[in-house]
Design a protein that fits this description.
Elements (H helix, E strand, L loop, with lengths): L4 E4 L5 E7 L1 E4 L4 E6 L2 E6 L4 E7 L1 E4 L4 E4 L4
């Protein structure tokens, strides 16, 4: 099956459309999205913060690190 990921609140209201291959929490208000092995970041309202064109995304308490596919 080709399932897609999104986010709903506890009442079942859709917050973020089910259109991602995978999602995971980056911080309390930022979410890593994955589409076709490329990663990006959205906020908890679904606004794109970093487009999904990166290979790797990590964070510490103040900075988001991204790794490209290019050398």
């Amino acid at each position: 099956m080709n399932y897609r990921w999104g986010i709903a609140d506890v009442n079942g209201n859709k917050i973020i459309e089910n259109k991602y291959d995978k999602i995971s929490r980056l911080t309390d208000s930022l979410i890593i999205i994955e589409n076709r092995d490329s990663l990006g970041v959205i906020n908890s309202h679904g606004k794109i913060i970093i487009p999904s064109v990166f290979r790797n995304i990590k964070t510490n308490s103040k900075i988001i690190f991204v790794q490209t596919y290019n050398n």
